[in-house]
Write a structure and sequence with these properties.
Strand content: 15-25%
Helix content: 25-40%
Protein backbone atom coordinates (compact mmCIF):
# COMPACT_ATOMS: atom_id res chain seq x y z
CA UNK A 1 0.00 0.00 0.00
CA UNK A 2 1.60 3.28 -1.11
CA UNK A 3 0.84 6.78 -2.38
CA UNK A 4 0.09 5.72 -5.96
CA UNK A 5 -2.25 2.93 -4.86
CA UNK A 6 -4.20 5.14 -2.43
CA UNK A 7 -4.39 7.97 -4.95
CA UNK A 8 -5.71 5.57 -7.60
CA UNK A 9 -8.31 4.34 -5.08
CA UNK A 10 -9.56 7.91 -4.71
CA UNK A 11 -9.61 8.42 -8.47
CA UNK A 12 -11.63 5.23 -9.00
CA UNK A 13 -14.12 6.18 -6.26
CA UNK A 14 -14.67 9.50 -8.00
CA UNK A 15 -16.14 7.56 -10.95
CA UNK A 16 -18.80 5.90 -8.77
CA UNK A 17 -22.48 6.78 -8.91
CA UNK A 18 -24.82 6.73 -5.91
CA UNK A 19 -26.16 3.38 -7.09
CA UNK A 20 -22.71 1.81 -7.47
CA UNK A 21 -21.75 3.00 -3.97
CA UNK A 22 -24.93 1.48 -2.49
CA UNK A 23 -24.34 -1.83 -4.29
CA UNK A 24 -20.79 -2.01 -2.93
CA UNK A 25 -21.91 -0.99 0.55
CA UNK A 26 -24.71 -3.55 0.68
CA UNK A 27 -22.40 -6.45 -0.18
CA UNK A 28 -19.86 -5.37 2.46
CA UNK A 29 -22.58 -4.73 5.06
CA UNK A 30 -24.07 -8.21 4.61
CA UNK A 31 -20.62 -9.81 4.91
CA UNK A 32 -19.75 -7.75 7.97
CA UNK A 33 -23.04 -8.61 9.71
CA UNK A 34 -22.47 -12.34 9.14
CA UNK A 35 -18.92 -12.00 10.45
CA UNK A 36 -19.82 -10.16 13.67
CA UNK A 37 -22.88 -12.30 14.43
CA UNK A 38 -20.71 -15.40 14.09
CA UNK A 39 -17.74 -14.08 16.08
CA UNK A 40 -19.22 -11.75 18.68
CA UNK A 41 -21.59 -13.28 21.25
CA UNK A 42 -22.61 -9.89 22.65
CA UNK A 43 -23.57 -8.53 19.24
CA UNK A 44 -25.45 -11.71 18.38
CA UNK A 45 -27.48 -11.41 21.59
CA UNK A 46 -27.92 -7.68 20.96
CA UNK A 47 -29.64 -8.34 17.63
CA UNK A 48 -31.68 -11.22 19.07
CA UNK A 49 -33.01 -8.86 21.73
CA UNK A 50 -34.62 -6.91 18.88
CA UNK A 51 -35.75 -10.12 17.12
CA UNK A 52 -33.67 -9.22 14.08
CA UNK A 53 -32.62 -11.65 11.40
CA UNK A 54 -29.69 -10.34 9.36
CA UNK A 55 -31.01 -12.20 6.32
CA UNK A 56 -33.68 -9.49 6.13
CA UNK A 57 -31.06 -6.85 5.36
CA UNK A 58 -31.49 -6.80 1.58
CA UNK A 59 -30.95 -3.13 0.80
CA UNK A 60 -29.14 -0.13 2.27
CA UNK A 61 -32.55 1.16 3.34
CA UNK A 62 -32.91 -1.94 5.55
CA UNK A 63 -29.94 -0.74 7.61
CA UNK A 64 -32.40 1.28 9.70
CA UNK A 65 -33.86 -1.97 11.05
CA UNK A 66 -30.64 -2.48 13.00
CA UNK A 67 -30.39 -0.94 16.49
CA UNK A 68 -28.14 2.02 17.20
CA UNK A 69 -24.89 1.32 18.98
CA UNK A 70 -23.98 3.69 21.84
CA UNK A 71 -20.73 4.35 23.72
CA UNK A 72 -22.14 2.60 26.82
CA UNK A 73 -22.39 -0.67 24.87
CA UNK A 74 -18.64 -0.51 24.24
CA UNK A 75 -17.64 0.57 27.76
CA UNK A 76 -19.86 -1.93 29.58
CA UNK A 77 -18.90 -4.95 27.45
CA UNK A 78 -15.10 -4.80 27.33
CA UNK A 79 -13.24 -5.89 25.22
CA UNK A 80 -16.22 -5.63 22.82
CA UNK A 81 -14.28 -7.60 20.25
CA UNK A 82 -15.03 -10.01 17.43
CA UNK A 83 -11.47 -11.33 17.36
CA UNK A 84 -9.54 -13.34 19.94
CA UNK A 85 -7.45 -11.48 22.51
CA UNK A 86 -4.23 -12.67 20.89
CA UNK A 87 -5.28 -10.96 17.64
CA UNK A 88 -5.83 -7.57 19.30
CA UNK A 89 -2.80 -5.38 18.64
CA UNK A 90 -3.90 -2.07 20.17
CA UNK A 91 -6.56 -0.47 22.32
CA UNK A 92 -7.13 3.15 21.37
CA UNK A 93 -8.62 5.14 24.23
CA UNK A 94 -10.99 8.01 24.82
CA UNK A 95 -12.99 9.16 27.85
CA UNK A 96 -16.25 7.50 28.81
CA UNK A 97 -19.21 9.13 30.55
CA UNK A 98 -18.14 8.21 34.08
CA UNK A 99 -14.43 8.65 33.63
CA UNK A 100 -14.03 4.96 32.86
CA UNK A 101 -12.13 5.00 29.55
CA UNK A 102 -13.70 3.78 26.35
CA UNK A 103 -11.24 1.32 24.82
CA UNK A 104 -11.54 0.43 21.14
CA UNK A 105 -9.90 -2.84 20.08
CA UNK A 106 -7.89 -2.84 16.85
CA UNK A 107 -6.39 -5.88 15.15
CA UNK A 108 -3.64 -5.54 12.52
CA UNK A 109 -6.15 -5.23 9.66
CA UNK A 110 -8.05 -2.43 11.40
CA UNK A 111 -4.86 -0.57 12.35
CA UNK A 112 -3.61 -0.67 8.77
CA UNK A 113 -6.90 0.21 7.05
CA UNK A 114 -7.67 3.06 9.46
CA UNK A 115 -4.23 4.55 8.80
CA UNK A 116 -4.75 4.13 5.05
CA UNK A 117 -8.04 6.01 5.24
CA UNK A 118 -6.32 8.83 7.10
CA UNK A 119 -3.64 8.81 4.41
CA UNK A 120 -6.48 9.19 1.90
CA UNK A 121 -7.53 12.34 3.72
CA UNK A 122 -4.02 13.75 3.38
CA UNK A 123 -3.90 12.96 -0.35
CA UNK A 124 -7.40 14.40 -0.75
CA UNK A 125 -6.09 17.59 0.87
CA UNK A 126 -3.17 17.89 -1.55
CA UNK A 127 -0.22 16.04 0.04
CA UNK A 128 2.32 14.87 -2.53
CA UNK A 129 4.57 11.81 -2.36
CA UNK A 130 8.02 12.57 -1.03
CA UNK A 131 6.99 15.73 0.82
CA UNK A 132 7.73 16.40 4.49
CA UNK A 133 5.22 16.70 7.32
CA UNK A 134 5.11 16.95 11.09
CA UNK A 135 2.56 15.34 13.41
CA UNK A 136 1.75 17.56 16.38
CA UNK A 137 -0.65 15.15 18.06
CA UNK A 138 -0.88 13.26 21.34
CA UNK A 139 0.83 9.86 21.25
CA UNK A 140 0.21 7.15 23.86
CA UNK A 141 -3.19 5.49 24.38
CA UNK A 142 -4.88 7.88 21.94
CA UNK A 143 -5.34 7.18 18.25
CA UNK A 144 -4.31 10.61 16.97
CA UNK A 145 -0.50 10.50 17.02
CA UNK A 146 0.15 6.89 16.05
CA UNK A 147 -2.50 6.90 13.31
CA UNK A 148 -1.22 10.18 11.83
CA UNK A 149 2.36 8.89 11.88
CA UNK A 150 1.41 5.66 10.12
CA UNK A 151 -0.79 7.47 7.59
CA UNK A 152 2.09 9.71 6.59
CA UNK A 153 4.47 6.78 6.26
CA UNK A 154 2.04 4.89 4.00
CA UNK A 155 2.21 7.61 1.36
CA UNK A 156 5.93 8.29 1.52
CA UNK A 157 5.55 11.44 3.58
CA UNK A 158 8.70 11.96 5.65
CA UNK A 159 6.99 12.66 8.95
CA UNK A 160 8.39 13.77 12.30
CA UNK A 161 6.45 13.24 15.52
CA UNK A 162 7.03 14.14 19.15
CA UNK A 163 5.32 12.19 21.93
CA UNK A 164 5.89 14.94 24.51
CA UNK A 165 4.23 17.73 22.47
CA UNK A 166 7.27 19.90 23.14
CA UNK A 167 6.46 23.18 21.38
CA UNK A 168 10.08 24.37 21.47
CA UNK A 169 11.09 21.19 19.66
CA UNK A 170 8.41 21.81 17.04
CA UNK A 171 9.61 25.37 16.43
CA UNK A 172 13.13 24.01 15.94
CA UNK A 173 11.89 21.20 13.69
CA UNK A 174 9.82 23.53 11.50
CA UNK A 175 12.27 26.40 11.07
CA UNK A 176 15.73 24.86 11.53
CA UNK A 177 15.64 21.17 10.69
CA UNK A 178 12.79 19.49 8.77
CA UNK A 179 11.15 22.45 6.99
CA UNK A 180 7.84 20.56 6.59
CA UNK A 181 5.16 21.55 4.09
CA UNK A 182 2.38 20.08 6.22
CA UNK A 183 1.23 19.88 9.83
CA UNK A 184 -1.24 17.30 11.18
CA UNK A 185 -2.56 18.69 14.45
CA UNK A 186 -5.49 19.85 16.56
CA UNK A 187 -6.76 23.42 16.10
CA UNK A 188 -5.97 24.18 19.74
CA UNK A 189 -2.34 23.18 19.30
CA UNK A 190 -1.90 25.53 16.36
CA UNK A 191 -2.83 28.33 18.77
CA UNK A 192 -0.19 27.20 21.28
CA UNK A 193 2.50 26.78 18.62
CA UNK A 194 1.97 30.31 17.34
CA UNK A 195 2.20 31.65 20.93
CA UNK A 196 5.59 29.96 21.44
CA UNK A 197 6.88 31.20 18.08
CA UNK A 198 5.90 34.76 19.02
CA UNK A 199 7.64 34.44 22.41
CA UNK A 200 10.82 33.45 20.54
CA UNK A 201 10.50 36.39 18.15
CA UNK A 202 9.58 34.15 15.21
CA UNK A 203 6.91 35.08 12.69
CA UNK A 204 5.01 31.80 12.10
CA UNK A 205 3.83 33.07 8.70
CA UNK A 206 7.40 32.77 7.39
CA UNK A 207 7.40 28.98 7.90
CA UNK A 208 7.57 26.66 4.85
CA UNK A 209 4.18 25.14 5.70
CA UNK A 210 1.52 25.12 2.97
CA UNK A 211 -1.32 23.10 4.53
CA UNK A 212 -2.42 22.53 8.11
CA UNK A 213 -4.54 19.40 8.57
CA UNK A 214 -6.63 19.65 11.74
CA UNK A 215 -8.61 16.94 13.52
CA UNK A 216 -9.63 15.78 17.00
CA UNK A 217 -11.25 19.10 17.86
CA UNK A 218 -13.80 21.31 16.11
CA UNK A 219 -12.58 24.28 14.10
CA UNK A 220 -14.82 26.97 12.63
CA UNK A 221 -14.73 29.59 9.90
CA UNK A 222 -13.57 32.35 12.25
CA UNK A 223 -10.66 30.23 13.47
CA UNK A 224 -9.74 29.19 9.94
CA UNK A 225 -9.81 32.72 8.56
CA UNK A 226 -7.64 34.05 11.38
CA UNK A 227 -5.08 31.23 11.51
CA UNK A 228 -4.75 30.80 7.77
CA UNK A 229 -3.69 34.43 7.81
CA UNK A 230 -1.33 33.98 10.78
CA UNK A 231 0.31 30.84 9.34
CA UNK A 232 0.04 31.90 5.68
CA UNK A 233 -1.21 28.37 4.98
CA UNK A 234 -4.43 26.55 4.09
CA UNK A 235 -6.32 24.81 6.95
CA UNK A 236 -8.08 21.54 6.05
CA UNK A 237 -10.45 19.67 8.36
CA UNK A 238 -10.20 15.90 8.76
CA UNK A 239 -13.21 14.46 10.58
CA UNK A 240 -11.72 11.78 12.82
CA UNK A 241 -12.66 9.80 15.93
CA UNK A 242 -11.15 7.04 18.05
CA UNK A 243 -13.62 4.43 16.82
CA UNK A 244 -12.95 4.80 13.08
CA UNK A 245 -9.93 7.02 12.57
CA UNK A 246 -10.45 9.34 9.60
CA UNK A 247 -14.07 9.35 8.41
CA UNK A 248 -13.92 12.21 5.92
CA UNK A 249 -11.87 15.10 4.56
CA UNK A 250 -12.71 18.68 3.68
CA UNK A 251 -13.06 19.72 0.04
CA UNK A 252 -12.56 23.18 -1.53
CA UNK A 253 -16.27 23.93 -0.93
CA UNK A 254 -15.86 23.33 2.82
CA UNK A 255 -17.84 20.07 3.03
CA UNK A 256 -16.63 16.72 4.42
CA UNK A 257 -16.51 13.90 1.85
CA UNK A 258 -16.54 10.47 3.48
CA UNK A 259 -15.09 7.16 2.36
CA UNK A 260 -18.29 5.53 1.13
CA UNK A 261 -16.54 2.34 0.03
CA UNK A 262 -15.59 1.57 3.65
CA UNK A 263 -18.17 3.49 5.70
CA UNK A 264 -21.90 4.16 5.67
CA UNK A 265 -22.84 7.52 7.14
CA UNK A 266 -26.40 8.33 8.20
CA UNK A 267 -27.80 11.52 9.71
CA UNK A 268 -30.66 10.86 12.16
CA UNK A 269 -33.08 13.10 14.01
CA UNK A 270 -31.99 13.53 17.65
CA UNK A 271 -35.45 12.72 19.03
CA UNK A 272 -37.12 10.35 16.56
CA UNK A 273 -33.88 8.62 15.45
CA UNK A 274 -35.29 8.57 11.91
CA UNK A 275 -33.22 9.57 8.89
CA UNK A 276 -33.19 13.29 8.14
CA UNK A 277 -33.53 14.89 4.73
CA UNK A 278 -30.48 16.56 3.14
CA UNK A 279 -29.87 19.92 4.79
CA UNK A 280 -31.57 18.93 8.07
CA UNK A 281 -29.27 18.84 11.11
CA UNK A 282 -29.05 15.57 13.00
CA UNK A 283 -26.63 13.14 14.66
CA UNK A 284 -23.94 11.39 12.64
CA UNK A 285 -24.26 7.58 12.69
CA UNK A 286 -21.40 5.57 11.18
CA UNK A 287 -21.12 1.92 10.11
CA UNK A 288 -17.61 0.52 9.63
CA UNK A 289 -17.68 -1.85 6.67
CA UNK A 290 -14.01 -2.76 7.06
CA UNK A 291 -13.87 -3.17 10.86
CA UNK A 292 -12.94 -6.67 12.01
CA UNK A 293 -12.10 -6.25 15.70
CA UNK A 294 -15.26 -4.41 16.79
CA UNK A 295 -18.88 -4.56 15.53
CA UNK A 296 -19.21 -0.82 14.88
CA UNK A 297 -22.50 -1.02 13.02
CA UNK A 298 -24.77 2.03 13.26
CA UNK A 299 -22.56 3.63 15.90
CA UNK A 300 -24.03 6.94 17.06
CA UNK A 301 -21.19 9.46 17.31
CA UNK A 302 -23.65 12.15 18.53
CA UNK A 303 -21.77 14.69 16.42
CA UNK A 304 -24.13 17.11 14.65
CA UNK A 305 -24.08 17.61 10.89
CA UNK A 306 -26.33 17.37 7.83
CA UNK A 307 -26.20 15.54 4.50
CA UNK A 308 -25.07 17.60 1.53
CA UNK A 309 -27.24 16.71 -1.45
CA UNK A 310 -24.87 18.05 -4.09
CA UNK A 311 -21.47 19.51 -3.31
CA UNK A 312 -20.14 22.42 -5.34
CA UNK A 313 -16.79 20.69 -5.84
CA UNK A 314 -16.29 17.97 -8.44
CA UNK A 315 -15.80 15.09 -5.98
CA UNK A 316 -18.35 12.26 -6.37
CA UNK A 317 -17.87 10.88 -2.86
CA UNK A 318 -20.95 11.68 -0.71
CA UNK A 319 -20.56 14.56 1.74
CA UNK A 320 -21.80 15.94 5.03
CA UNK A 321 -21.49 19.47 6.37
CA UNK A 322 -18.71 20.49 8.78
CA UNK A 323 -19.37 19.21 12.31
CA UNK A 324 -21.68 21.70 14.03
CA UNK A 325 -21.51 20.49 17.64
CA UNK A 326 -22.65 17.62 19.84
CA UNK A 327 -26.06 16.04 20.26
CA UNK A 328 -25.34 14.45 23.65
CA UNK A 329 -23.83 15.93 26.79
CA UNK A 330 -20.20 15.31 25.87
CA UNK A 331 -17.97 18.38 25.83
CA UNK A 332 -14.72 18.78 23.96
CA UNK A 333 -12.10 20.98 25.64
CA UNK A 334 -9.18 21.47 23.25
CA UNK A 335 -9.89 17.95 21.98
CA UNK A 336 -10.23 16.37 25.45
CA UNK A 337 -13.60 14.73 26.11
CA UNK A 338 -15.50 15.70 29.25
CA UNK A 339 -18.94 14.74 30.56
CA UNK A 340 -21.06 16.62 33.16
CA UNK A 341 -21.39 13.40 35.16
CA UNK A 342 -17.62 13.37 35.67
CA UNK A 343 -17.85 16.88 37.12
CA UNK A 344 -20.71 15.87 39.42
CA UNK A 345 -18.73 12.87 40.68
CA UNK A 346 -15.71 15.08 41.33
CA UNK A 347 -17.72 17.71 43.26
CA UNK A 348 -19.49 15.05 45.35
CA UNK A 349 -16.13 14.07 46.85
CA UNK A 350 -15.42 17.58 48.15
CA UNK A 351 -17.19 18.45 51.42
CA UNK A 352 -18.72 21.89 51.91
CA UNK A 353 -20.41 22.08 48.50
CA UNK A 354 -24.13 21.88 47.73
CA UNK A 355 -23.51 19.84 44.56
CA UNK A 356 -25.00 22.54 42.32
CA UNK A 357 -22.70 23.99 39.72
CA UNK A 358 -22.53 25.71 36.35
CA UNK A 359 -19.78 25.14 33.80
CA UNK A 360 -19.13 27.95 31.33
CA UNK A 361 -16.84 27.33 28.36
CA UNK A 362 -15.45 30.24 26.40
CA UNK A 363 -12.74 31.00 23.86
CA UNK A 364 -10.01 33.43 24.87
CA UNK A 365 -7.40 34.16 22.22
CA UNK A 366 -8.66 31.07 20.36
CA UNK A 367 -8.00 28.73 23.32
CA UNK A 368 -10.71 27.00 25.37
CA UNK A 369 -11.27 28.17 28.94
CA UNK A 370 -13.43 26.59 31.67
CA UNK A 371 -15.10 28.71 34.33
CA UNK A 372 -16.64 26.63 37.11
CA UNK A 373 -19.30 28.29 39.26
CA UNK A 374 -19.90 26.15 42.35
CA UNK A 375 -22.50 26.69 45.06
CA UNK A 376 -21.47 26.39 48.72
CA UNK A 377 -23.40 24.24 51.18
CA UNK A 378 -23.29 27.01 53.80
CA UNK A 379 -21.43 30.18 54.61
CA UNK A 380 -17.76 29.56 55.36
CA UNK A 381 -14.72 31.50 56.51
CA UNK A 382 -12.38 33.15 54.01
CA UNK A 383 -9.47 30.75 54.63
CA UNK A 384 -11.79 27.76 54.02
CA UNK A 385 -13.03 29.41 50.83
CA UNK A 386 -9.47 29.61 49.56
CA UNK A 387 -8.94 25.91 50.37
CA UNK A 388 -12.12 24.89 48.54
CA UNK A 389 -11.24 26.90 45.45
CA UNK A 390 -7.80 25.30 45.37
CA UNK A 391 -9.29 21.82 45.82
CA UNK A 392 -11.82 22.31 42.99
CA UNK A 393 -9.15 23.86 40.75
CA UNK A 394 -6.79 20.91 41.23
CA UNK A 395 -9.55 18.35 40.72
CA UNK A 396 -10.93 19.83 37.47
CA UNK A 397 -7.88 18.90 35.43
CA UNK A 398 -7.66 15.46 37.05
CA UNK A 399 -11.18 14.41 35.97
CA UNK A 400 -9.80 12.74 32.84
CA UNK A 401 -6.23 12.13 31.61
CA UNK A 402 -6.88 14.04 28.36
CA UNK A 403 -8.13 17.11 30.25
CA UNK A 404 -5.07 17.16 32.49
CA UNK A 405 -2.96 16.83 29.36
CA UNK A 406 -4.39 19.83 27.49
CA UNK A 407 -4.45 22.08 30.58
CA UNK A 408 -1.16 21.26 32.28
CA UNK A 409 1.10 19.65 29.67
CA UNK A 410 0.40 20.75 26.10
CA UNK A 411 -1.22 23.97 27.47
CA UNK A 412 -3.61 24.06 24.54
CA UNK A 413 -6.40 25.06 26.96
CA UNK A 414 -6.32 27.86 29.54
CA UNK A 415 -6.07 27.14 33.26
CA UNK A 416 -9.62 26.82 34.69
CA UNK A 417 -11.26 29.57 36.71
CA UNK A 418 -13.27 28.72 39.87
CA UNK A 419 -15.98 30.92 41.39
CA UNK A 420 -17.66 30.05 44.71
CA UNK A 421 -21.28 31.16 45.10
CA UNK A 422 -23.44 31.50 48.22
CA UNK A 423 -25.89 28.71 48.98
CA UNK A 424 -29.02 29.14 46.85
CA UNK A 425 -27.39 31.45 44.27
CA UNK A 426 -27.84 28.91 41.47
CA UNK A 427 -31.03 27.22 42.67
CA UNK A 428 -32.76 30.62 42.94
CA UNK A 429 -32.54 30.86 39.15
CA UNK A 430 -34.97 27.96 38.78
CA UNK A 431 -33.84 25.08 36.58
CA UNK A 432 -30.05 25.25 36.41
CA UNK A 433 -28.42 25.09 33.01
CA UNK A 434 -25.42 22.97 33.95
CA UNK A 435 -23.32 23.76 30.89
CA UNK A 436 -23.13 27.01 28.95
CA UNK A 437 -20.94 26.75 25.87
CA UNK A 438 -20.18 30.23 24.50
CA UNK A 439 -17.60 29.12 21.94
CA UNK A 440 -20.00 29.26 18.98
Amino acid sequence: MNYKYLKSELEELNKFTKESFEKLQLGKLQDRLKYHVKNNLWYRNFLEKYALNIKNIKSIGDLQQLPLLEKEHIIDNFPFSSVSEKEIRRFYQTSGTTGKPKLIAYNKHDIDRSAQLKARGLIFGGVKEGDKGIAIMAYGPWASGLMSQQAGEYIGLTIAGDAKLDTNWHIWAIFSQYHPKYIISQPSFLVRLEEIAKEQGIDISTSPMERLFVCGDMSNNLFKKEFEKRYNAKIIDLYCCTEFGCISAECIAGNLHYWADELIVEIIDQKTKKLTAPGEIGEVVVTGLYKEATPLIRYNTHDLSFLVEECECDCKLPAISPILGRGDDMLSIAGANLYPRQIEDMLSKISGLSGRYQLIITKEKFKDKITMKVELEKEIEKNMEKYLKKSIFENISSIAPELNYVINQSKTAHQPNVELLKFGALSSQGKIKRVIDKRR
